[in-house]
Input
Amino acid sequence: MQLTLKQLAELATNDSALSENILLTIPPGTSIVLENVSWDAFEKLLVKLGDTRVARVACDQGTLEIVAPLPRHEYYKEAIGVLIQDLADELDLDYETLGSTTWKRRDLLSGIEPDQCFYF
Output
């Protein structure tokens, strides 16, 4: 079953018991995909969610995906990050760790948040 956000909002406004209690939950290890999301809505969502969240957000030409990783995903992310740093140090490569920086290109209507990224 699919509902548009407008349909969901109409549901909420027609029933005052629903209007303030609607909550979208994304369990760890799952994702949600929204289609026809404007670039401005994507940017507003990033601001609203803030920088201290676990979920990762990606947007590509109107398709928005919000992913809630599992705890073991975070373990592997850290282990691979340490491996990359150790390898770069061993090879005497200059690098910067940029974490889960949000990379956005409005001209391509695309934005993504890696788990961890490096600049060499």
